[in-house]
Amino acid sequence: MGSQKRNRELYLDSEALATLRMCKEGILSPVDKLMNSIVAKEVDKTSLYKGQHFPFSFILAPSGKRNEEVLKSAQKNDILEIIVNDEKCGELIVEESFKIDRLKRVEKIFATTDSAIKGVADTLKRLGNYAISGEVKINSDEVKLHKKEIQDQKKLLGAKNITAIMISAKPFHRAHERMIRIALEKSDLLVLFLLKPYKQDLFTYELRYKTLKYFIDNFLPKNRVMIVPFENTYLFAGLDSIVLDSIAAKNYGCDTIAIGQNHEGIGMYYDSSGTKSIGDYFKALDIGIDMDIVNEFVYCNECKTLVSTRSCPHGRHHHISYNTELIHELFKVGVLPPAVLVRKEISAIVLSQLFPNRFEGLCGKFSNFFPGTGLIEEMNEEQFYMQLMNLHQTVSLT
Asked: Which CATH number among 3.30.70.100, 3.10.400.10, 3.20.20.70, 3.40.50.620 corresponds to the domain 2-139?
């Protein structure tokens, strides 16, 4: 009996589960189910499904010896229990199991099989030798709830133009702020899809949400901006991330997606007729959502403000770029980034979370070191950072 039970269990990770949930709720439409071998082969060949563009086949091929045994022995109409983190999360009624070429699958997604590339290496680790198709029964209430929240806010505002931005906010900086403001000027409702990756580091989803929420609550008309968690699964790791982001945004109810010019998926598309821009390529796909490419922003030490590289007359040597990796590293070692890069309130939130109790004892001891209201006030670590930044910005003696 125990052996039969094991042959009825399919062990998935949280990424696979989230991807199945998105599929079930129509976020990946036109894809609405796991593809069998014939359909998968055709989609990989044409990048079309039901007459609409989809970059590669949608299959489920989990790794692991235990899963491979289950998939090899699965028969049509078998019911497999979906297990994630030792808990049953749903069922799959088998249509077909079939062998796949792992390297061809990876090459279709990334246009390379070079395992030195992180996305390729990660995908190879989680990709098995067999795929399975069939009807999936799974709880997707969270995705359904977020779709409803967007639609409810759209009705409340009478919004006609809804723009999406896929954002990691890791960390959230001034260029992000400018991009958000530009998108908000052009739309009635702005949906910020905050990416929720599965490999956590210091910048947890909760911390990034907190910084983004602070900015919205204090510096934007908050009834016109929403934060929606977006499961940034392996599906969105390849070269077609912009296309898949756009498909998802459209199916959440947005009619425009705003993308930064320095997005890693922005490039040139080549065909026999010559060179076309990503915008031309995107229009040719006819996904059903507009793309707004926002110019790159820098801080110019001649203009003394945040500027677009297209509108600033000064050379690159006058520009401070919003290098996310550099800002991330400054935070990682506990250094306050300059306020021209990150708003001081945001820096205070981040550092007080990354280094809790760093100034334990100092906040009270040196409270009179900073100017105040004249009243005795307790100072927490976030306020301590804020006061330090205020002193950093005192320029009369420099």
From this structure: 3.10.400.10
Question: Sheet of 9-12: strands edge to edge?
Answer: 9-12, 79-84, 87-99, 127-138, 60-62
Q: What are the tens digits of pLDDT across the range 353-365?
A: 998 877 766 655 5
For domain 142-294, the CATH superfamily is HUPs (3.40.50.620)
Q: CA 220, 221, 223, 225 torsion: positive or negative?
A: negative
How many CA atoms within 13 Å lie on the side-chain side of 93?
4
| Cα–Cα distance, 214 to 347 (Å, whole number) | 11
Model confidence, pTM: 0.87
Give the DSSP letter string of 79-110: EEEEEETTEEEEEEEEEEEEE--HHHHHHHHH
Question: In this predicted model, what pLDDT tens digit does every residue of 305-351 receive, in sequence order?
Answer: 888 888 888 888 888 888 888 899 989 999 888 888 999 999 999 99
